[in-house]
Design brief:
Radius of gyration: 17 Å
Helix content: 25-40%
Shape: globular
Strand order of the largest sheet: 5-4-1-6-7-8
Structural class: alpha/beta
Distance between the termini: 17 Å
């Protein structure tokens, strides 16, 4: 791994926390100040030791489809890992399967009891021997054993117990933007004691947590961090990102903030999203060797 100035990773964290309307920056101050660097280092340390599983897909019960936040960020991470020679498997539920390309390896996690989910999770580890797990924009279970979206609606009937797999593995990353995603359980005590966040936050933990304004941006930030450490730009262009998002819309995804089928994520228009990606590219141009 290349030795990069620590300031570069702090810049990445600052970029993905711009437009911070949910006060995720306050949460970031409760974490190790180089959390995105540590996440990328963990991936690189394990990339040749086994498959890397990425889980994503957040189901919205009103439009009965998934959000535009999650899969695009997952693809950014997955493509970066693949370019570095790693093998990626996407772990999803049945209602997300059409949003993952047919050329990608997938595992469909059943929506069943916690006991049966634990058996399924153990079989994943036995059959696939993953070296690392990554969750991006995956709802995490609460202390009351249920799943809540950011509007406090109970979505348990649409959410599989993928958390149990993360409980079984030592190399895990969670990416979230609201307090109810896998990994945010790392900050449960702080989130649950503050009136700034969701009333009933998740207890689901990960070894490494990445907090961000939009989970897709966290995926871009992680891909940018992998780029810095490998001295190779692994981040998609704005044209590629636009094509990915348009494909998701064509398949039926919607903005999770307004449930509209448009080029936007969590209420942020596409220009705002592209500007985040462009800032990450500018940072890579600054730090990567020519």
């Amino acid at each position: 791994m290349k030795n990069i100035n620590k300031e570069a990773f702090i810049e990445i964290q600052n970029i993905i926390l711009e437009h911070d309307y949910r006060e995720m920056s306050l949460l970031s101050k409760k974490m190790n100040y180089l959390y995105i660097k540590e996440s990328a280092e963990m991936i690189l340390e394990n990339i040749s030791k086994g498959k890397i599983i990425i889980s994503t897909g957040f189901y919205e019960i009103i439009p009965k489809t998934i959000e535009t936040d999650g899969p695009p960020g997952a693809f950014s991470i997955g493509n970066a890992i693949t370019e570095l020679g790693g093998e990626v498997i996407y772990l999803i539920e049945s209602h997300t399967k059409d949003f993952i390309g047919k050329d990608q390896k997938t595992i469909i996690f059943p929506n069943t009891t916690k006991e049966e989910s634990l058996k399924f999770a153990k079989n994943i580890i036995k059959d696939h021997e993953p070296s690392a797990l990554i969750s991006i924009e995956r709802c995490g279970v609460t202390e009351k054993d249920r799943y809540l979206n950011i509007s406090r609606q109970d979505i348990s009937n649409y959410n599989a117990y993928i958390d149990v797999l993360f409980d079984l593995h030592k190399n895990t990353i969670g990416i979230g933007d609201g307090g109810n995603e896998i990994g945010m359980g790392n900050l449960y005590e702080y989130i649950s004691s503050s009136d700034k966040y969701i009333d009933e936050p998740t207890i689901s933990k990960a070894k490494h947590l990445i907090v961000t304004t939009v989970s897709n941006w966290g995926g871009w930030g992680l891909a940018a961090s992998l780029s810095l450490l490998s001295n190779k730009n692994l981040l998609e262009t704005t044209k590629e990102a636009t094509d990915i998002m348009q494909d998701q819309l064509n398949l039926g995804a919607v903005d999770g903030a307004n449930f509209k089928s448009e080029l936007s994520v969590d209420g942020f228009d596409w220009e705002t999203n592209k500007n985040i990606l462009l800032k990450l590219h500018t940072l890579l141009s600054k730090y990567l060797s020519s």
